[in-house]
Structure prediction request, 159 residues.
Amino acid sequence: MTAIKEVVNRFGKKEALLLQVILAVQDADPQNHLSEEAVNEISREMNISRSRVYSTASFYSEISLKPRGIHIIRICTNAPCENANKASILAAIKQELGIKIGQTTADGFFSLESVNCLGACYMSPAIKIDDAVYGDLTPEAAVAIIRNLRKEYQDEQNA
Ligand code: FES
Prediction:
């Protein structure tokens, strides 16, 4: 049984569950995205048109149709974070990674995205890396988090 078939069996074939299926398939993808093959297989397994799968995937900013890094950094661009000096956090992250919003580092480790609000306005400026939210950030703290993730990964690889 393919991984996608397994996901569909776990959630069920109802169209109302399409978003959950897409998110689970994306989560299991090493490049954090929904490939064309995955769209085709979801469509086949759930008996839903490819265009319906594509339109659902395109509607949500959390879902990507192009390959992304192992870690997704999301920077909030709403007013509370903007007013709390989000620009300096973004500049520091861009400089550290050498990429702009919407891009992935050459080593495929980080992707940088913007988001409207992380629901963490009380600790602006905030970023989210994968499922973890970091708030009350300084540029130095943001860079330290990124370097730490890279170091953890390298340590794991060398273990
Ligand atoms: S405005 Fe940035 S987390 Fe809500």
User: Anything to note?
Assistant: The chain has two domains: 2-59, 71-158. The two ends are 32 Å apart (CA to CA). The mean pLDDT is 94.
